[in-house]
Amino acid sequence: MNKVALVTGSSRGIGRLIAIRLAEQGYDIVVNFNRNRKKAEEVQAEIEALGRKCLIVKANVGDVTKIQELFATVASEFGRLDVFINNAASGVLKPVMELTEKHWDWTMSINAKSLLFAAQEAAKLMTRTEEGGAIVSLSSIGSMRVLENYTTVGVSKAAVEALTRYLGVELASEGIRVNAVSGGVVQTEALDHFPNREELLADAIKHTPMGRMVQAEDLVDAVMFLVSDQAKMICGQTLVIDGGRSLPVS
């Protein structure tokens, strides 16, 4: 039976690239989206062209009921889940003094709360097989560095990394590996929403020791490593892919 991978927020950006790379590695794919079905269908077509099965499921991962429905659909369609990529993210980019409770709740629900409840559902499916499974979340260096207008997202990503450690320990005995990939500034569609986009790009290029910005494919490579057997003893860790940008260089 083919292995199955679910990638949330995979109709575009890094999630799309991860879904396609997993399909290239032989996985059947569940593409999750919340708004743009047309984009999801384009990803589905790319995956099916690779000879893999692809299921599209619309779900807002900030809603626990929708998360449960998403995984119930996966169980009904495939009967198993081997890889879960927690990629979907959102956030309000404003200065601290302009944030409201609604901004906070929205960002934390989609970016952090979703991981807990999605991981619970993923684990139920992964324990159906002897192989266990792998869960990987996408984080960012905003979890440990203060970035302008990034408060809600940065705090939510810090929560993701902390939850990764707790899930990693508790699910290890079930043969489920839980880790995260934290990326530096990456030029994707999501970056277009930052009011200080140009400053972030200039800073990343100037201050990254490796001499270039992080590319989306760099993060995809890290995700693929963490879901592979080569990472079978990596548990509860956050792998930082930033070309050395976050190091305290004098």
Give a verbal description of the structure.
Its EC number is 1.3.1.10. InterPro entries: NAD(P)-bd_dom_sf, SDR_fam. GO terms for molecular function: enoyl-[acyl-carrier-protein] reductase (NADPH) activity. Keywords: Oxidoreductase. This protein has 250 residues and is an alpha/beta fold. The chain has one domain: Rossmann fold (3-Layer(aba) Sandwich), CATH 3.40.50.720. The chain has seven helices and seven strands; from the N terminus they run E-H-E-H-E-H-E-H-E-H-E-H-H-E. Strands 3-2-1-4-5-6-7 form a seven-stranded parallel beta sheet, sandwiched between helices. Helix 4 (101-126) links the parallel strand 4 and strand 5. Helix 1 packs across helix 7 (216-227) and helix 4 (101-126) packs parallel to helix 5. The radius of gyration is 17 Å and the shape is globular. It starts with a strand and ends in a 9-residue tail after the last strand. 44% of the residues are buried.
